[in-house]
Design a protein that fits this description.
The protein contains six helices and no strands. The protein is an all-alpha fold and 184 residues long. It has a single domain, classed as Vanadium-containing Chloroperoxidase, domain 2, CATH 1.10.606.
């Protein structure tokens, strides 16, 4: 059973990373997957978005932001410090048996399962959508594209991002439930 799941995961990886490859995706997904490392985004765009959100949302926005930071830190710690070492699954670009095209200028050295990008973006999406349901479609679309980008650029298998998304949803909802009293 596990071998069949792994074969399916590898086949799905091949389909996303190789078969669906095109010049538009080759430009968009590496950009998206590394947006958090782009100086103009982190120094200009993100602060402006946060400032506008804080001005419009006042106290609630600030409290939700604090919950997002706590949830993101928790998800990153669980993923990177606990689960990656437990599963110790090699990344696609580390396996000779898997044909992969690496579309980022680096190949992460850490283990593959679960995807930190997927875990953290799903956690943040879950917190935001818990307090701003009207934003759910937008934040979950961003989280889904972010997760997909990790497979497309060749650094994760599909199950790595699926597990990351599901765990992120769980952690984000739990933090939201616990933080709901504080927000009100």
């Amino acid at each position: 059973m596990l071998r069949a799941l792994e074969s399916f995961d590898h086949a799905l990886f091949h389909w996303i990373n190789q078969v669906l490859a095109n010049s538009l995706f080759d430009a968009f997904f590496p950009f998206l997957t590394n947006l958090n490392k782009t100086p103009w985004f982190t120094s200009i765009v993100l602060p402006i978005i946060l400032l506008l959100w804080f001005i419009k949302g006042r106290k609630k926005a600030l409290k939700v932001f604090v919950l997002m930071i706590v949830a993101a830190g928790l998800s990153d710690t669980i993923s990177y410090r606990v689960l990656k070492s437990y599963f110790n699954r090699p990344r696609p670009n580390h396996l000779a048996s898997v044909t992969s095209t690496l579309r980022v200028p680096y190949g992460p050295k850490s283990a593959s399962m679960p995807s930190n990008h997927a875990f953290t973006s799903a956690t943040v999406a879950a917190v935001i959508s818990s307090f701003y349901p009207v934003a759910a479609v937008y934040v979950w679309t961003i989280a889904g594209l972010n997760a997909y980008s990790r497979v497309y650029v060749g650094v994760h298998f599909p199950f790595d991002v699926l597990v990351g998304l599901l765990l992120g949803l769980l952690v984000g909802r739990l933090v939201s439930i616990i933080g709901r009293r504080w927000i009100k």
